Amino acid sequence: MENHSKADKKAKLRAWREAEHAKARLAFPLPDEQLNAFFCGVEALRAKHGCAHDTRHAEAVLPTLGVPPSTTQSVFSWCEDNGGFCDCEIAANTREHWEECRPRT
Fold it and tell me: How far apart are CA 22 and CA 103, in angstroms?
């Protein structure tokens, strides 16, 4: 049985986590700057109008970012895959996933 130090275990965990984040980044449906603007726009509309438990705010924001209709469904599929089934969940769950996995600057 191998004896791994605590530092070795932490290093392996960090490497695994970064690999998972890199895999998640490959699935991002839009560039990082557009995702940031998307989440800010959804949150602003949600804060002003509340959440109707649908995606009307997200649907309103995407065209303002120049996202073509052909890409819209992939954005919503990605949101759903990451816990965003309505505007408030997109603003919370999906944004949290993106923030955790996005490239560090």
Answer: 8
